[in-house]
Specification:
The structure holds 2 protein chains of 2 kinds. Chain A is of the alpha+beta class. Helix content of chain A is 31%, strand content 21%. In chain A, the strands form 2 sheets. Chain A has a 5-stranded mixed beta sheet with strand order 1-7-6-3-4, with no helix packed on it. Classes of the chains: A alpha+beta, B mainly alpha.
Chain lengths: 176, 193
């Protein structure tokens, strides 16, 4: 028996002493990866974030704000805007035990809004009726029964400066 | 479509595009060998799974915060195994009393691997003997054998263990000699195991 053959046999024997990862281990890791993938997709779809994130010119922001003022002409509608300054409820990234209300800031020029809720895979699970209100009580909504999990929500407008607020996320915790 | 991409490209797609399938492929490539490496290193399936899960979750967390950066010149596998090795040493070697003695847990504490379906009692017993023999090795030598068993090259062992190449080679040589001796004292050869 040569040393190499002996080593191969030993290697083979060693490998037989182990088992692969368990289903529980795999499920835990993959669930975490799925959440992060959804969050990364949302970040990628938020063009206003990226210039800030990579430190690109504040100049762009100044220009966006000042050009419409200088020209005194209305700015074209922005399709999707997600701004950290927008106050919403549930807050972006919040973990909530109970979902009571969706609330958002008025969008200039918009007269009606509707809320769209998507699950972790970005599938629409509920859409509200159009309304002029900027708050929506969950208790009053038919068909809005969410299981614990991660959700994305956004507000669509009928016009004005912003076509959509969000998407924002919230994590509906399982009841204890 | 992610098949054919290397590990670094899959990680970047996961981080930059939120591509879940890219992560899934990367995970499939490494999860079993990584757990096997940690089983050999720790002598425990439970510890191996705990350390492995911790490392994958830390990796995912860094991606979630956009912090993952490929290390220049080091493979993803080396990165992952280094995480695992460090976690095991920090969590289980330095903090636990038996590890402070610088030795593996007593042989009585080492788990005997479960018999595979259809496996004979004799084969199962030999697996247990091999696991016990591995447990008698000092941590540094057991580490090299565990990496070797996981298919890690000598060059990557040098990266993971941060030891000179000659040191890695001598650790492997001494460990192999001890395992063969242990086999002989058990009345079996590697071929029988």
């Amino acid at each position: 028996m040569t040393p190499d053959n002996d080593d191969d046999a030993l290697l083979d024997a060693l490998r037989k002493t182990t088992s692969g990862s368990s289903a529980e281990h795999d499920a835990t890791v993959l669930a975490a990866a799925r959440k992060v993938a959804a969050a990364r997709q949302r970040k990628k779809a938020s063009p206003w974030w990226r210039p800030f994130a990579i430190g690109l010119p504040a100049l762009a922001v100044v220009a966006l704000i000042s050009i419409p003022l200088l020209n005194e002409t209305p700015a074209p509608p922005v399709d999707t805007v997600r701004s950290a300054s927008v106050s919403v409820a549930p807050a972006d990234g919040a973990v909530v035990a109970e979902l009571d209300v969706f609330e958002w800031a008025t969008v200039r020029g918009a007269t009606e809004y509707r809320v769209i809720v998507r699950d972790e895979a970005a599938t629409v699970v509920w859409t509200s009726d159009w309304s002029s209100e900027t708050a929506l009580s969950v208790a009053d909504q038919d068909g809005l029964a969410l299981a614990p999990g991660l959700y994305l929500w956004s507000v669509e407008t009928d016009g004005g400066r912003q076509r959509e607020l969000g998407p924002f996320t919230f994590d509906l915790a399982a009841p204890e | 479509m992610t098949s054919g991409l290397n590990d670094a490209a899959l990680m970047l797609r996961f981080q930059e595009d939120g591509d879940y399938d890219a992560f899934g492929e990367l995970f499939d490539r490494h999860k079993d060998a990584f757990v096997a490496y940690l089983q050999h290193l720790s002598g425990s399936t439970a510890i191996a799974e705990d350390v492995s899960q911790h490392c994958w979750l830390k990796l995912i967390e860094s991606v979630g915060e956009g912090r993952y950066r490929p290390v220049s010149g080091a493979s993803f596998r080396s990165y992952l195994y280094t995480l695992g090795r460090n976690r095991y040493i920090d969590e289980y070697q330095r903090k636990h009393a038996e590890a402070r003695r610088g030795t593996m847990p007593d042989l009585e504490q080492v788990e005997h691997p479960d018999a595979a379906p259809g496996e004979s009692a004799e084969a199962s017993e030999r697996k247990a003997l091999l696991t016990a023999a591995l447990a008698t090795l000092p941590l540094e030598q057991r580490d090299v054998i565990a990496l070797w068993s996981a298919g890690v090259s000598i060059e990557h062992m040098v990266e993971i263990t941060a030891a000179p190449r000659d040191t890695v080679l001598s650790r492997k040589k001494y460990a192999m000699a001890k395992l063969r001796t242990a086999f002989a004292s058990m009345g079996v050869s590697a071929h029988d195991a």
